[in-house]
Amino acid sequence: MVDYAIETIELVKRYPTSARREGGGVVFQGGGRVLISGRGGGVQSFGGILSAIRGTKGPFIEALHGVNLKVKKGETFGILGPNGAGKTTLIKILCTLVLHDEGEAYVNGFDIKKEPDKVLKNLQAVLPESRGFSWRLTGRQNLAFYALLYGLGDKEAEERINYLLEFTGLEDRADDMYQRYSTGMQRKLLLCRALLRDTPILLFDEPTVGLDASSAAEFRGLLHDKMAGEEGKTIFLSTHNLVEAQQICDRIAIIDRGKITACDTPDNIRYKMFDEMPLYITFYDVEFSEEHEKMVVMLQEMPGVYGVTPEIDHDKSFRGISIRVDKNMNLSSILEIILKNGLKIRKINTQEPTLEEAFIAITGQHPGEPSPRGGRRR
Amino acid sequence: MSMGLKLKQIAAFTKRDFYSWSTYKTAMITQLINVFIGVFSWGVNATYVQRPVSEMYGSDYISFLVVGIAIGNLIMPLVQGVERQLNPWTLETILMTGLSTPVFVIGNVMWNYLFSVITFVPYILIGIFVFGAKLNMNVVATIIAFAISAAILMGLAMISTGMRIVTKSTDPVTWAINVLQNLFSGISFPVVFLDSIFFPGASAISWLLPQTWVYHLCRLSMLTNPSLLDPAIQIQFLKGVIFAVILFPIGLKIFNWGVTRSKREGTLGWY
Fold first, then answer.
1. Nearest by CB to A146, which of B88, B97, B266?
2. d(CA A374, CA A30)
3. What is the arithmetic mean of pLDDT over A312-320?
4. Shortest CA distance from A148: residue in chain B
5. Which of A28, A30, A300, B92 is the most exposed, fewest CB within 10 Å of its CB?
């Protein structure tokens, strides 16, 4: 019994690059780290010629650097990272379009290098740039063509295509030429094609990129409610849309410069990244006095309090107080001190960290930004 | 907008296209060399036009040329079919279906080939009725010659496609094959002429080229009404079969090598 739908062990991928040694140093290019191969300086020997033919002649850029992931069956798993972090490379390795250099990767227990045919019977991918549809055929005709390539029988193909067109809400436009389709409809047809074989695992690379807000929401609904919910499929998606990740993913991994830097539920990633949280307390108007000043000092000295900032107007009106506290702190002790000082509380707010804040804290960048050059940062 | 700016903008387009062209190093070099090859081929044609082609097929030049052009039209889709269909979106998608290489290759050229077979007839009819070409055809031999030619050219197509998947442009192997074809395989003049053009025995090079056998077997079948029971003719066809048997598996190997290398380099989805 295989426990995981997808498992990668110390996965490494290096791409040949045009970067060359400059002044003896290492040239960084894109998001990864450039490694200078010993055989990179030109064809000097039979081994050099052989590696040139095989495409293993350096120098290389390291796109994935020992990636370890375990995706459970039936899980919706998101991989997040800045541009150039290695998300697409990972997805293309999993769907056998890119060969990894080191490490192991399994899809439903099948080794992706040794058993690619079995892998492709367990997994299909929706890659936004990989259309492969004939513009002057209808959506249905395009699907029928691919159904044949997948080896479906005529009747089985017809039934499956009808089901998928209805499933994705494309049945009314199924007999229109593909060139008449909107971007959202094209994306749905990609989904239909990926589902033709009814594989238990589906990969999506930036599933909603290029879609307008309502099409994106509809597509997310398809993924989350129908495919994951009704059909119980394992979904592995890459995105830098953090709202999307938080909405539909059971777990996420953050990849940065080819390395997984965090992997957990979206909530745990948000909370684990921060030891403190802000607490805002607003008072009914009162003049700021010496007692209040002493109260601020007392609060500052409390264990679990990292900082206290009173909010005082130019007319000395004591509006409220912001306190940075330990995320696990019992807040009643703070409230007790405030009430003892005769202050009347109008409002209490705490602000939970967002996934975006966690992402920035982990990667040092905003989502969608390219991975910076140079070494790893935390 | 000033004229100066407009000229600069036109120059910007030219510069962009030049830079793009110059990044395809192999294509750049081969295109330049092709200019010289083209001039040479047409020079030879001009020299030998209207000369009887009795040396090889007992035919007049126009019959020889019409059949050659018709065959060229027939076989071109086989060589170009796969690489014309080849774009990164299609290739990645098709590979994810787990389709076998021969099915992919044959599937991609089949319609173009069938269409060429249909258009082969008007070529021949126009040649006969407009230009007075005289055919002396053995239909069975012609069909066999076409089948052997298809296998040879499919092998070449796979070699070419495998190389193009890696180079994303003109590949040196296909280019060399095409150049040698233009010079030596007797598309528009009989290969025996090469002995008098270059040096005695130069035509021997032609017989090492698979394309020569494509043209030769088709012309033999369409211009000389050969008897398939004649051992001399059987040997000619056997030589063509040997080329096909060697080239097809080599083509498969090179196509798979191209895909594997491109997967290793992560360039399958690149132009």
1. B97
2. 9
3. 88
4. B97
5. A300
| CA A26, chain centre distance (Å) | 29
Interface predicted TM-score (ipTM) of this complex, two decimals: 0.70
Question: What pLDDT is recorded for position B47?
Answer: 61
Please give the mean pLDDT across all residues of chain B.
79
Are A62 and A14 in contact by the 8 Å Cβ rule? The answer is yes
DSSP for A96-153 reads TSS--SEEEEEETTEETTT-HHHHHHHEEEE-TT-----TTSBHHHHHHHHHHHTT--
- The amino acid occupying position B66 is V
* CATH, residue A229: 3.40.50.300
Together in a domain, A231 and A205: yes
- Residues A39-52 have pLDDT tens digits of 444 445 666 666 66
pLDDT at B226 over 80: yes
> Which residue in the block uniquely carries the two structure tokens 């909603």?
A208
For residue A339, count CB atoms less than 10 angstroms from its CB and return exposed for 0-12, middle for 13-18, buried for 19 or more. Answer: exposed
Burial (CB count <10 Å: 0-12, 13-18, 19+), residue A347: exposed
Residue-wise pLDDT for A215-254, tens only, equals: 888 888 888 888 888 889 999 999 888 888 988 999 999 9
pLDDT of residue A20: 34
Strands A33-35 and A60-72: antiparallel
Residues 249-268 of B with CB under 8 A from A: 260-266, 268
Tens digit of pLDDT for each residue in B118-133? 778 888 888 888 888 8
Local structure of residue A28 (DSSP, 8 states): P
What's the pLDDT tens digit per position in B158-216? 888 888 888 776 666 667 777 777 777 777 777 777 777 777 887 888 888 888 888 88
Residue B263 has its nearest CB partner, among A97, A131, A149, at A97
Total length of chain B: 271
Other CB atoms within 10 Å distance of the CB of residue B80: 16
CA-based nearest residue in chain B for residue A133? B90
Among A227, A243, A270, give the residue marking a domain's end.
A270
Please report the pLDDT score of residue B20 as a whole number: 64
Whether A234 and A334 map to the same domain: the answer is no
Distance of residue A313 Cα from the nearest chain B Cα, in angstroms: 57
For residue A70, what are the CA distances in angstroms to A96, A105, A257? 18, 10, 19
In the three-class reduction of DSSP (H, G, I as helix; E, B as strand; rest coil), residue B198 is classed as: coil
State the average pLDDT for chain A: 83
pLDDT tens figures, A283-300: 998 888 889 999 999 999
Asked if the structure places residue A126 within a domain, the reply is yes
* Cα separation, B166 vs B253, whole angstroms: 14
CA distance B105 to chain A (A): 13
CB contact under 8 A, B99 and A55: no
Segment A197-221 mean pLDDT: 86
Which of A238, A236, A233 minimizes the C-alpha distance to A205? A238
The DSSP call for residue A290 is: H
Residue A155 has pLDDT above 80, yes or no: yes
Hey, how many other C-beta atoms are within 10 angstroms of the C-beta on B36?
10
Q: Which of A270, A286, A318 finishes a domain?
A: A270
Contacts of B266 in chain A (CB under 8 A): 13, 15, 63, 89, 92, 98
Which residues span the domain enclosing A312?
A: 275-350
| Rounded Cα–Cα distance for residues B60 and B38 (Å) | 24
CB-based contact, B230 to chain A, within 8 Å:
no
